[in-house]
Known about the structure:
By secondary structure, this protein is an alpha+beta fold. The protein has one domain (2-74). It has one helix spanning 53-74; strands at residues 2-13, 16-30, 33-41. The longest helix is centred in the C-terminal third of the chain and has 22 residues, at 53-74. The protein is elongated, with a radius of gyration of 14 Å. The two termini are 25 Å apart.
Amino acid sequence: xxxxxxxxxxxxxxxxxxxxxxxxxxxxxxxxxxxxxxxxxxxxxxxxxxxxxxxxxxxxxxxxxxxxxxxxxxxx
Length: 76
C-alpha cells in the first residue's frame, strides 16, 4: 500500500496554531483488485500538528484497513 501525506490544514484556536487535518492519498492492490482514494486524518484520530509523516501514515493505514474490513462485512 502506498500512502502519501500531502500536507496539513491548520487553524488558530485561542490564538494558537492547531491542526485542522492532514491530507492523505493512498493506493493499494493491483488491477483489477485495486483501491485508491484520499482521506482527512484529524486530531480525533490521535495525531497532532507535531506528528511525523510516518505517524500520520500509520493512522491512515489503520483507517483504510478498517474501511475495507467494514465493507467486507457488508457484502456477506
